[in-house]
Design brief:
Elements lengths: L1 H17 L5 H10 L1 H21 L4 E9 L13 H4 L5 H8 L2 H11 L3 E5 L3 H9 L29 E9 L8 E7 L2 E6 L2 E7 L4 E2 L5 E9 L5 E6 L2 H11 L1 E4 L6 E8 L2 H58 L7 H28 L7 H24 L4 H35 L5 E9 L8 H26 L7 H5 L4 E6 L2 H19 L12 H4 L4 H16 L7 E6 L6 H14 L4 E5 L7 H4 L8 H6 L4 H4 L1 E2 L5 E4 L8 H5 L2 H13 L2 E5 L8 H6 L4 E7 L5 H13 L6 E7 L3 H4 L14
Parallel strand pairs: 13-20, 14-18, 14-19, 15-17, 15-18, 19-20
Antiparallel strand pairs: 1-11, 1-12, 2-9, 3-8, 4-5, 4-9, 5-6, 7-8, 10-11, 16-17
Helix pairs in contact: 1-25, 3-13, 6-8, 6-9, 9-12, 10-11, 10-12, 17-18
Length: about 750
């Protein structure tokens, strides 16, 4: 016997686990049941999306096209400067330079971006009306919507303007938001945290006594009392914001074409900022290309006076020597040697000049630097050989040769540097850079953000997904039974399915409404008389179903040991008292003599249903204070007798285990055709296990979409462990739902109709 019970329990657990499989039809039914919730939530999200799309500040985008060309001097006669001017530049390098602080600082300074001003709007609502401002609104210069009357006069609603050219503050005031109020007649007041800082007038520089704030307002247009926000940002912050907002992309790998885009909420401001950035990029490119030429010019300018002095000194020495030696002339051989030496010295000095230029750009290990030194060493070697050939000449000729050489060499070098200086000046003047602005910054006619149709669609989809997810998650965590076949799968017979009672629901709604009204009026909790549906509305669909249960009881009790019926449940709130009371009434109306016992001595309320007092009930009978005749009281329904729960005792379970309870049931079984016992839930207390040993027939009550399958199985196992055989399950408060209809069995498709 014990092993059979274990096997039965095992089958129950396996069947419960098998019910965890995903049932797509049931899920679809759940969605149909919650269709109004899904529709409402989706509509709410759609409405929020529409409001956001209308209220959101539009964002505009300006774009500019830039071409990067190879660097070239393009000047005749200065081809030797080509290497100095540079060759090809990587577009990625130019993209990085375009977003550099140096370039962006140009735009910051030109547009005075460190100073931020804006009219004082009332949040998104104020900005919404300001965007829809026209030049003239109802004969007024500034927008004044009807909602403006709900707020103070300091808010701007459209058309207000202010221009600030100077706003210098001490470091402690940086990034602080000041409020400037128009006082009329060109006067204004500047406040910070509702404390006035200074007063001033338009086109007049205003400053505090300490000099911590200097403000120059050149134009202000608004009604008197309207406020403006003014702030001076950290330079690093505004440049960082520009770097974040500015976008640069290349069109192809080797095309040398860049596209620069900038976004913002003010169309004109966006265009001006991008234009200034591109112009600053072009300017720094030209400056960057001419800086090396300028360095060479500066070097030559510093060397020219030196070589001019050397030339003058050399000429003076030569003239003095000739005067002293009475005009010594050079022979043809000496003249030839002199020309060669001069040429070599001139070339050596030219290489020295180029070496100075290369030293500014490269290290000594650079190939160009090494090649130049090699040429220089070759020329020095040739000069050394010529010097040896000069030693064979007479002393006078040698001295004249040395002095003449110094004059010729210094003269050649001086002329070379003069020519070089002129060439560099021409090259600098002709430098145009390798950056070309193909398309100037232009803002599109329509904003790029927000994409209103996309926002509404996404909001609708999000609302639908959120509501569907909520329904499915709620169903996943709330595993209330909706299909009676699930009880059959774990070995429990369903004896009746009781539809939800419309009469009972209407009564409960009225009861809640009455209690709320009492609370609002400050009254104590009002007592509401309970109703017996079988008496109030005999044609209710729930009562019709209970009548079918009455028929099933006849077959369920054929092999019962007595005529005592126990109705229990797994947990509170499943409707045990409702089923017990109305079943007793229906049985009594059929002519049977019925005794209804409220055995829930803790929280039973059957006495309220039949409008009886709670005293002199079961607890008093079991204690021995009253006898059976005193405890059993008649009701308004013929053939129906009630024993209430009585006063709440301290030991209900011990009273049920006593001899008095056994004697009472024995007497009741003889005196009545049927004895119905309404018990507390089995999973809460042990009372049903005690009562079940005395009952010939026991039923377990489950509530639709509330009682879980595991809960019912646990209750059935609890009775089984105590040796009590549960005849079957009564499925209470059944509703017709799509999640049940579209399930595996479609059990409830019959509509009860009042006759």
């Amino acid at each position: 016997m014990t092993e059979t019970k274990k096997n039965t329990q095992k089958v129950k657990v396996e069947n419960i686990n098998s019910n965890d499989e995903i049932d797509l039809a049931r899920l679809f039914g759940l969605l149909l049941d919650s269709k109004w919730l899904i529709i409402f939530v989706t509509a709410a999200f759609t409405f929020v999306g529409i409001v956001y799309a209308l209220m959101a500040t539009p964002v505009y985008k300006a774009d500019s096209l830039i071409q990067i060309e190879e660097k070239s001097s393009g000047l005749p006669g200065v081809a030797d400067l080509e290497e100095m001017l540079g060759g090809e530049h990587d577009p990625e390098t130019e993209m990085a330079l375009l977003k550099s602080r140096r370039v962006l600082s140009y735009a910051v300074d030109e547009l005075n971006l460190e100073i931020v001003t804006s009219p004082k709007h009332k949040g998104s609502l104020g900005k919404f009306f300001a965007r829809r401002y026209g030049s003239i609104v109802e004969g007024k210069e500034f927008n004044q919507p009807m909602v403006a009357d709900l707020f103070d006069d300091s808010y701007a609603w459209g058309g207000e303007q202010i221009k600030v050219t100077t706003f210098n503050v001490s470091p402690s005031y940086l990034d602080q938001t000041f409020e400037l109020t128009n006082l009329g007649s060109g006067a204004y007041a500047l406040t910070l945290d509702e404390e006035q800082i200074l007063k001033g007038k338009v086109n007049e520089l205003a400053q505090t006594e300490s000099g911590s704030i200097e403000l120059l307002v050149t134009d202000i247009k608004s009604d008197i009392g309207t406020g403006f926000y003014i702030k001076r940002l950290y330079r690093e912050d505004i440049i960082g914001a520009l770097q974040t907002t500015l976008s640069v992309a290349g069109q192809g790998k080797d095309t040398g074409i860049l596209t620069a885009t900038y976004e913002g909420t003010n169309k004109q401001h966006v265009e001006d900022v991008l234009h200034s950035i591109t112009q600053g990029f072009l300017l720094q490119n030209v400056q960057r290309m001419s800086v090396e030429i300028q360095n060479s010019i500066d070097y030559i300018k510093s060397e020219l006076p030196i070589y001019k002095d050397l030339l003058d000194q050399a000429e003076a020495k030569l003239n003095n020597f000739r005067l002293e030696n009475k005009s010594v002339d050079l022979s043809i051989e000496t003249q030839s040697i002199l020309e060669q030496v001069v040429e070599l010295d001139t070339r050596i000095h030219e290489l020295s000049f180029k070496e100075a230029e290369l030293a500014q750009r490269f290290t000594k290990e650079h190939p160009s630097y090494i090649s130049l030194n090699k040429k220089k060493q070759e020329l020095l070697g040739q000069k050394a050989k010529l010097t040896e050939s000069v030693e064979g000449l007479p002393a006078t000729q040698q001295q004249v040769l040395r002095l003449a050489r110094d004059v010729e060499v210094n003269q050649e070098i001086y002329l070379y540097m003069l020519n070089k200086n002129q060439e560099l000046r021409v090259a600098k003047a002709g430098t145009v850079g390798n950056i070309h602005i193909v398309d100037q910054a232009v803002v599109g006619r329509k904003p790029v953000k927000p994409k209103k149709p996309l926002i509404v669609v996404l909001a609708t989809l999000l609302g639908g997904m959120f509501s569907v997810a909520f329904v499915l998650i709620k169903a996943a965590f709330h595993r209330g039974v909706t299909n009676p076949q699930e009880f059959e799968d774990i070995g429990l017979t369903v004896y009746a399915t009781i539809p939800v009672s419309d009469t009972q629901n209407k009564f409960l709604d009225k009861k809640k409404l009455k209690e709320k009204m009492g609370q609002k009026l400050g009254r104590k909790k009002l007592k509401t008389k309970e109703i017996l549906v079988a008496q109030e509305n005999p044609t209710d669909i729930a009562i019709e179903a209970i009548r079918s249960l009455r028929t099933s009881l006849h077959f369920a009790m054929l092999e019962a040991k007595n005529n005592v019926i126990m109705i229990s449940g797994a947990s509170p709130g499943v409707g045990k008292s409702f089923i017990s009371s109305n079943l007793a009434a229906v049985l009594a109306q059929a002519g049977q003599k019925i005794l209804l016992i409220d055995a829930d001595m803790r929280k039973g309320y059957t006495h309220k249903v039949f409008n009886h007092k709670v005293e002199d009930g079961l607890s008093e009978l079991l204690v021995g204070d009253i006898d059976f005749a005193q405890a059993a009281s008649s009701t308004e329904i013929d053939n129906l007798t009630l024993i209430t729960r009585g006063q709440v005792p301290p030991n209900p379970s011990e009273l049920l285990m006593g001899e008095n309870f056994t004697k009472m049931l024995a007497q009741a079984s003889k005196d009545y055709d049927l004895v119905l016992i309404d018990t507390p839930p089995i999973l809460a207390v042990t009372d049903p296990s005690i009562i079940g040993h005395h009952a010939g027939t026991s039923f377990l009550l489950a509530r639709f979409d509330q009682s879980s399958l595991k809960e019912i199985a646990a209750a059935a196992n609890r009775f089984d462990l105590n040796g009590i055989d549960i005849k079957g399950v009564i499925f209470n408060a059944v509703e017709k739902k799509a999640s049940s209809y579209y399930g595996d069995y479609g059990y409830y498709n019959y509509e009860y109709k009042s006759k």
